[in-house]
Structures are given as C-alpha cells and as structure tokens.
Amino acid sequence: MEALEAVILTIITASTPLLLAATGELVTERSGVLNLGVEGMMIMGAVCSFAAAYTTGSALLGILVGLYAGVATSMLFAFLTQTLMTSQVATGLSLTLLGLGLSGLIGEGFTGLPGVKLESIHIPLLTDIPFIGPILFGQDILVYVSLALIAAVSYVLFHTRIGLVINAVGNNHHSAHALGYGVIRVRYACIGFGGACSGLAGAYLALAYTPQWIENMSAGRGWIALALVVFSTWLPGRLLIGAYLFGTVWIMGLYVQGLGVGIPSQLLSSLPYLVTIVVLVVISGNRSLIRVNTPAMIGQPFAPER
Amino acid sequence: MILRLERRSQRSTLMAFLSPLLAIGLTLALGAIMFVALGFDPGKALYIYFIEPLTSAWSIEEVVVKAAPLILIGVGLAVCYTANVWNIGAEGQLTMGALVGASIPIYFPDWQSPLVLLLMLVLGIAGGALFAAIPAFLKNRFSANEILTSLMLVYVAQLLLDWLIRGAWRDPDGYNFPQSILFEGWQVIPPLGDGRVHIGAIFAVVAVIIVAFMMGRTLRGFEIRVIGTSPRAGSFAGFKGKRVVLFCFMLSGALAGLAGICEVAGPSGQLQPHVSPGYGFTAIIVAFLGRLNPIGVFFAGVLLAISYMGGEAVQVELGISDKTTQVFQGMLLFLILACDTLIRYRIRLVSPGR
Asked: How many CA atoms lie within 13 Å of A84's alpha carbon, on the beta-carbon side?
C-alpha cells in the first residue's frame, strides 16, 4: 500500500508540469495560434522561478516570477507573430532556442545550489487519512492549480461568451473580425495565457519536481505538451487524461529501473518520446477524430484588410 | 502612436538583402547591452567575440572546422523549409549518421583500406537519411506532425548513442569512460594540409553548389518551391506533395548524417556521448539567416561558426560564460524573423484616432 501511494504521488508530480503547459497551449491553439515555443517559455519559467525563490527564500514568490517570465517570453512571440505577422512555426522554434540559451546563461550561477522546495499543504485530519489523505489533500498548491485550471478552461471554452469568442477566432478569423471581435487582441490574450501556464509548469519543475536548477531541465516536456494537445484533440477532458498517462509513462521508467530488470535505462528513458510518436501516429491517422475539433485557422496569420 | 503594417505590392528585393544585415546589427546592439548587464566592456567583448576569431590562422581554421557541419546541415534544412517541410530533428540525424558510420571502425578495428573511410561516409549518409525518413513516412502515411516526431527522435537517437557507448561500444581500455576506441589510419578523415581542417569543408562547399544548382536549375528544385508556396497549384501541375516531403527529409537527413560522421571521423576521432555542440539546432538558424538560399547559408554558417569560437574566446579571456553563444544565436533568429517582415510590409507610425 505504501509503495502504491509513493507511485501515485510521483505520477502526480510528473504529470503536473505536462498538464499545466498543455492547458495553456490548448487555449492558445483554440484561438488559432500554434506556439512551438512552449519548451522555451517553460525553461525560462523554471530558471526565473528558481532564481527568485533562491534569492528571496519564498517559493510562492518563485511561482509568481516564473509565471511572469512565461508571460514575458510569450509576449515576444505574440508581438512577432501577431503584430509583425511572422511565421508562427519559425517564431515558436526561435523562442525555444532563445529560451534554452538565455536560461542557460541566467542559471549558470545557480547550478548545484540547493533550491527552495515548494511545500505540500497539510490539512489537519484530512491529510492524515491513510492513503487517500496524502494523495487527495497533501499535494502542493500547483497541483491543485493545474487541476483547477483545466476545469476552468473546460468551463470557459464551452459555457461562456469568452469561450465562444476564442473558438470563433480560432475557427474563422474573418467571420470573427466581421462580427467586430478583435482577433489580434484575443490571440494576444490566449498566447499570454499559454505563456503563464508554461511559466507555471517551469516553476513546478524548479520548485517541486527537482528543487534545483539543472540546465535543459525541461527535457522536452514542452514538446510533449504540444503533442498532448494533439492527443487531446483539443478537448480539455482528454487533455487531463493524456497528461496523467504521459506522467505515468515518464515515471514507469524510473520504477522499472529500480526493480533491477535487465532493460537498459536508456530505453526506459526514451519511452516518453517513443510513446509520444506512437500516440501522434495513432491520433493523427484517424482523420475523423482530428477533424472535428482542430481549430481551422491554426497557424494562419490574420491580416485585417483595411 | 500605433505601429501599423502596410502590405507592399511586391516583395522588396532591397529589404530581402538588408534584413539579415539589420538583424545582425540589432543582435550586436542587444549583445552589447547584455555584456554591460553582465558587467563587461561591451566593445572589448564584441571584438573578442566576432573579430578576434578571424585574426589568427589557427582560429580561422577552427572557424572552417565548425562552419562545415553547420553549412552541410543548414543547406539541407533550407531545402526542407522552402518546401514547408519542418525537419527540426537534424541533431538526431547527425547523431544517427555518426553512430552508423562509426560502426565500421568499432566492429573492424584492424581493417585498414581506403574502402573503410568510403564505407564510413556512405553509412553515415545512409544512417542520417533513413533516420530522417521516419518522420517523413509518419507524416505521409499517418499525417503525424513532422515537427514533433522529428524532434522526439533527437532524444531517441541520443539515448541510443548513450546506451551503445556505455555498453557494447565502450573502449575496453578506456578506463570506463563512455567513449569508443580511437580511430586511426583510414578510419579518420585526412586533414587538408597540416591543420585541423579536413575534407568535410570541401563536402560543405560541394553541397552548397549542388543544392544551389538543384533549386535553381532543375525540375526537382522547381517542384520543391512550388509545393512550398502553393501545394494546390503544385498538385495541379502533377507534383506530389508526399514525394517532396520524403525527398526533403532524406536529403537533409543525408547531409546531417554526413556532417555527423565527419565530426566523429574528423575532429573527435572517436565516438563520444555528444557528437556535436548542437549543430543540428544551430543549423535551423543558419538556414533562416541564409534566406533559405544555399549561397546565403554558406555565409550564415561561417557567421554562426564564428559565434561558437567567440563564445569560447570570451570565456577564456574575459571569464564571460560561453552560454552567451546560444543567447546570441537565439536573438539572431528572433530578430531575423522580425526584420523579414520589412520584406513584405512597410511600417508606418500612425497617430491614434486616424
């Protein structure tokens, strides 16, 4: 029972950053924008949150700074793609390259330093319930934030006016524009939301997952988050399931290694990447599944005719 | 004041030429600010970064050694991106080329013949090309996004190399270091002259010429350009988008594989856990900075090679982190994309209220 509890706890830890980043990207893509810079925003969130938490000693401040770092980097992307109308694919790629480079430079002085750990909450009585307590009521705050966010996104996208506008902009920006909605403004906001979520994901990595700074510590999670959005076919519910499935795959490798089975550790480490490829193939190969929810305008720039 | 873009009636040729220069200028300006922020004399740092590598014979040779793989890979990626095919896994294809090519000296350490080197190069090319064919196949057959699959395969290739080099391929007399045996004789690419420059540099120049010819003068090049600008028009002309995807991936994979085996059989002389300092990713910047044009890629490759050298130089001479190299490279790509807007648009400042 205790072993199972430990496994579930680590799965949650591995899934949360994926869920956070993918939630943000889902909203960005719903508005018709493909931001391939998730990895870059995430790693900037990680390094900035680590630096802030280390200097001030406050994990909460670290989270906040990580969030801002994500938003700030995403605004670079937004300015280029929305105002200067650059290619979204190329700009997203360059955001990732820039983020990886800049984070390496910022983080250099912090390598190997003991970080500030984001403490798990403890509710008397509730958290003390065996098994269920630590899993349901003993997580750190970002785990609850990630779950609340995906629930909120699901609600907003399908039950509110704002969601309707986002979907309209993502599915036909000319019609949305004709109806008087500010396409560019909506997209700026959605890109910013994506940046905030990626920043939080980075903060989670640097404050909760491994409370220290390691160069390239995002290890492709930003890219996997992008794949998760495809996996979810742009539906929040499936995104939640997908993130936890991938978190499980990520963790499984570690446990199998611990059992001392004669499988090379490198094969186990490559599992998340291989599974991502398989999942992309299975989902993308199914035309009808993909077509229903793919935002029709994804990746296309919007230039209002004046 | 509001920034407003006005579409030009046609692409500005002047701006197409000026935009990379403008981007380089802005990158240097931002770089100067970065050095001031880090507490260093910006003039001195920039001099050491970008001028000093060109002032001694030794460092010029080193620039050539670093430019060769960047140009090889960059030329292939330029073809891909022209066709709107997004191969960003060149780093993995490079690793795979290095790994497959190096299998010859590792399994036949005593075999010495010119054939060995030839076989290594051919296997390197084949390894890269076939590895690149995976995302192309997955895209054509299952419409799986090639950006994500090609990138995921980078991690897979690197982990495969890591596994081999810590296991079956480890040098038994290497004190448990994760590296293969040292290659020698015909297992190494002969240097040109007595320096570190080797025939990889010639491959790069030849690749530039061949690809420039292909893109400008052949039907295949025309097909790639048409599919890239308008897949619909291409299909009316009888061009097959899927064939272009496979061709572009395998071409760029082959060139990346060649770059990989040239690294291993050239400067390194053995298989190590990291075949390149990220040439496969830097080549993305090279391709864009070079306007997706083979000749442009050549100059861009040289510039980015200098930035690698400069990064090492400022670390040694001023104690500035060589991580600045990646920052420079990232900023450069970002700014080149921003400046490219000027090719298609005019920027006007309009006062609000019109």
From this structure: 20
